[in-house]
Inverse folding.
């Protein structure tokens, strides 16, 4: 007896199967999800803590924290009173959709408007793995240099938004050699529709545009 | 007929085979090789350019530059008049020993004392791949934060030396919340013999100890 195999169906990787399940779960709860990607130390956790505080009157935000080791970041998020679940990858250089599925099960998703996934600090590998998110947000800090979109194109090509963090450092004469126009040009050459938010998670400068965009994104998603 | 298989021999991965060949080639030429690992933007290329310039009277240094895309870094090194070969990985998150073998064939190794391999900017993946180097050097910049050895232990556990770069930023009151003693403690907990060099590749502060250590390392290797 012959078995009929439907070759028209795309065969998904195990990761993509979990990502699809995550995206269905998120859609069922009308919950927007952003996957944040950057180098170590660009300021992802500080951005998230400030975002949660600035938006606490209007948006209920939860966080999934990814790190190779330690729960330092989820501790920082919980100090803002937002729910946070830590994933320790134990060596792996990116989060997997299965890990995110487990974390979503431990967040009060019925009560949230927006979930941020803070990926492992790595400007290369995480962008290649779907987690079920609605969009990726890449973070670049001014201290890292303005050549990063050209040198690490994958993360910038696949993101819906780019945060240029630590712009307060640009106010100190002679401190950094960083041309934000070069970043804009190189990022838009890779990704013409990318939204770019220069800001400082330390001083709050530039945060209004970022927070407005998040609020609009949640509204559009409903 | 039975074929005799020597199960006592360790089976090397393809990468480790190339790494072993590289290490033999380097030993034949009494050439010391350091593999530099860090996040994007920690200042590896600036450190190398200054090191080459400060040591040009005593050490002949060549560089293998690894990037996902662009030859910006090898152009910067060549401006110091040192030989530099660029590897563009085209997406891969770390250098392989086979890529380094190809690059070594394009460097004037008979005329050199020391070769630096500047790995792809990534604090996670490169530390897991041997390239045939004598030792790894990990770079952390103060702008990345003092929690990085605890959060990314692999790269710090496997390195012979740690450069803490951009210490000039610590002189600006209130700019960074970075405790270098926390870095020392956490790095030594992972790796009790790691050498730690706080320096600024921009101002040259702290460079003497780093350059002395390189000179001694080359002498010891002969």
């Amino acid at each position: 007896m012959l078995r009929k195999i439907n070759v028209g169906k795309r065969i998904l990787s195990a990761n993509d199967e979990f990502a699809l399940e995550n995206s269905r779960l998120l859609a069922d709860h009308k919950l927007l999800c952003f996957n944040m990607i950057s180098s170590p130390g660009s300021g992802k956790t500080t951005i998230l803590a400030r975002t949660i505080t600035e938006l606490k009157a209007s948006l209920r935000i939860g966080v999934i924290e990814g790190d190779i080791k330690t729960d330092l970041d989820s501790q920082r998020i919980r100090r803002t009173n937002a729910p946070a679940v830590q994933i320790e990858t134990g060596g792996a250089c990116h989060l997997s959709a299965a890990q995110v599925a487990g974390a979503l099960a431990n967040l009060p998703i019925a009560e949230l408007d927006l979930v941020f996934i803070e990926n492992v600090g790595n400007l290369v590998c995480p962008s290649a793995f779907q987690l079920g998110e609605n969009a990726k947000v890449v973070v670049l800090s001014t201290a890292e240099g303005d050549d990063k979109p050209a040198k690490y194109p994958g993360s910038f090509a696949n993101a819906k938004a780019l945060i240029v963090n630590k712009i307060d450092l640009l106010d100190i004469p002679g401190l950094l050699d960083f041309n934000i126009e070069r970043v804009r040009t190189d990022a838009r050459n890779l990704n013409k529709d990318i939204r770019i938010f220069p800001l400082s998670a330390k001083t709050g400068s530039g945060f209004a545009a970022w927070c407005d965009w998040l609020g609009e994104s949640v509204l559009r998603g409903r």
User: Anything to note?
Assistant: Chain B has eight helices and seven strands.
